[in-house]
Specification:
Bound molecules: NADPH dihydro-nicotinamide-adenine-dinucleotide phosphate
Helix content: 40-55%
Strand content: 15-25%
Oligomer: single chain
Strand order of the largest sheet: 9-8-7-6-10-11-12
Order of helices and strands: HHHHEEEHEHEHHEHEEHHEEHEHEHHHH
Shape: globular
CATH architecture of the largest domain: 3-Layer(aba) Sandwich
CATH class of the largest domain: Alpha Beta
């Protein structure tokens, strides 16, 4: 990297850190983008003159609110609710809601920031946002979750709308929570509109939305492998997580002839060397979505290995699909993956690899796709759900899946064209960041100082 470029990055990051010294996840996300786009900015001084970077890292608006709710015993709790409306240059704010005890402004700002570039890559007219609460839906009854969602939406409803801000799910927010949130919005506003995506099929949802993020991450990996004349057929695949993204990533890998050997939750991971087949995956879906149990129960049922408190990256594989949470692959684990012959990483989760891990992947010249490109399928199909809601029609499964596949291929092509080095190797991080950034920056410039 040239001296002037590193100086530019250092000085900008000093500025970011001085403004919000404790938001380390946000710093990490900004640093990754600034590293990629610095050469472009230095070659196009008009962007710098209009302070495009300073503007793009500053949310257009953040709302934070109190969420009081009562548990089944009548005890009152108070959680914090947030919505970060990051950027509306390309369309209304769009991005998920996360319910998890670790939720804070740093996490939501990093997710909202990533979302802006991801949404830009989909080529759909979507701005970026993210929200959520430090509420933990684990070990809560359905009624408790419903009361929490109702209280959360009672405040959030005044800030969102089908043409303003359209939230969706994320960690801890699945079909059940979206239903409760939608019901409360409708009740207060007396409007049946597409204000949320990820809705049930009978009430405005889209086919393939639940599958979209996981399928999309696998479609992206397939595109990367195709460039090397390879496919999923016969490949051993490690997946982390066992929630929405992990389940459907596993489903698509199985359909493509790969062998999924691991899944995990926050308590540990299972290693099934025989492979998680369709029947075993149905069990995982039942376990996680209906009886809301722990992945350990899989090991008890099928008699395979379970490692408490560990992540699956020590298991030998050809492809790794991190689908749980941020910073779940560190440098040591990245080195282990490479040493064991892993050649493809496609991130279903957001920012699951630490910067040091990404550095190892780049050094190893493997096929590595960052979340903002590889997991864009979820928001892409959310965009398609919004279109169907506006037109009051429902597309078939094949139609939506076909569009998802086309979008993932096009994101892959954009990454290749912006991230390809002279020797043919593709830096997908640079590709995704530059392609995503240029469109948003141009729109912001055209719209004046907003
Ligand atoms: P879910 O809540 O459905 O599943 C999350 C999974 O990850 C669970 O198995 C959970 O285990 C595990 N997990 C969560 N936090 C941690 C942690 N701190 N350490 C270890 N394991 C953890 O969420 P999703 O599948 O929807 O989301 C997974 C990832 O994908 C997130 O990074 C999300 O931002 C990203 N994503 C999701 C999209 C979507 O459409 N849903 C779209 C794009 C990205 P446990 O049950 O024990 O908590």
């Amino acid at each position: 990297m040239e001296k002037s470029t590193s100086k530019f990055i250092r000085s900008f990051m000093d500025y970011v850190k001085a403004r919000d010294p404790f938001q380390k996840e946000f710093h990490q996300a900004v640093h990754e983008v600034v590293e990629s786009i610095a050469p472009f900015l230095l070659n196009n001084p008009n962007y710098n003159q209009s302070k495009i970077l300073e503007r793009i890292i500053e949310p257009e608006r953040i709302v934070q609110f109190r969420v009081p709710w009562t548990n089944d015993k009548g005890v009152v709790s108070v959680n914090r609710g947030f919505r970060v409306e990051m950027n509306s240059a390309l369309g209304p704010y769009k991005g998920g809601l996360r319910f998890h005890p670790t939720v804070n402004l740093s996490i939501l700002k990093f997710l909202a920031f990533e979302q802006v570039f991801k949404n830009s890559l989909t080529s759909l007219p979507l701005g970026g946002g993210k929200g959520g609460s430090d509420f933990d839906p684990k070990n809560k009854s359905d009624n408790e979750v419903m009361r929490f969602c109702q209280s959360f939406m009672t405040e959030l409803q005044r800030h969102i709308g089908p043409n303003t801000d359209i939230p969706a799910g994320d960690i801890g927010v699945g079909g059940r929570e979206i239903g409760f949130l939608f019901g409360q919005y409708k009740r207060i506003r007396n409007e049946f509109t597409g204000v949320l995506t990820g809705k049930g099929l009978e009430w405005g949802g889209s086919l393939i939305r639940p599958e979209a993020t996981g399928y999309g991450a696998v479609y992206f990996a397939e595109e990367m492998m195709k460039r090397k004349g390879e496919s999923f057929d016969g490949k051993v695949v490690c997946i982390s997580g066992s929630g929405n993204v992990a389940q459907f990533a596993a489903e698509k890998v199985i359909q493509f002839g790969g062998k999924v050997v691991t899944m995990s939750d926050s308590s540990g991971f299972i290693h099934d060397p025989d492979g998680i087949d369709r029947e075993k995956l149905d069990y995982v879906m039942e376990l996680k979505n209906i009886s809301r149990g722990r992945i350990k129960e899989y090991a008890e049922r099928y008699g395979c290995i379970y490692k408490v408190g560990e992540r699956p990256w020590s298991v030998k594989c050809d492809v790794a699909l991190p689908c749980a949470t941020e910073n779940e692959i560190n440098q040591e684990e990245a080195t282990m993956l490479l040493k064991n012959g892993c050649e493809v990483i496609s991130e279903g989760a957001n920012m699951p690899s630490t910067p040091e891990a990404v550095h190892e992947f780049h050094k190893g010249r493997i096929l590595y796709a960052p979340g903002k490109a590889a997991n864009a399928g979820g928001v892409a199909v959310s965009g398609l759900e919004m279109s169907q809601n506006s037109m009051r029609i429902n597309w078939t499964r094949e139609e939506v899946d076909g569009r998802l596949h086309t979008i993932m291929k096009s994101i892959h092509e954009m990454c290749v064209s912006y991230g390809k080095h002279n020797n043919g190797w593709v830096n997908y991080v640079d590709g995704a960041n530059v392609a995503g950034f240029v469109k948003v920056a141009k729109a912001m410039m055209a719209q004046g100082y907003v």
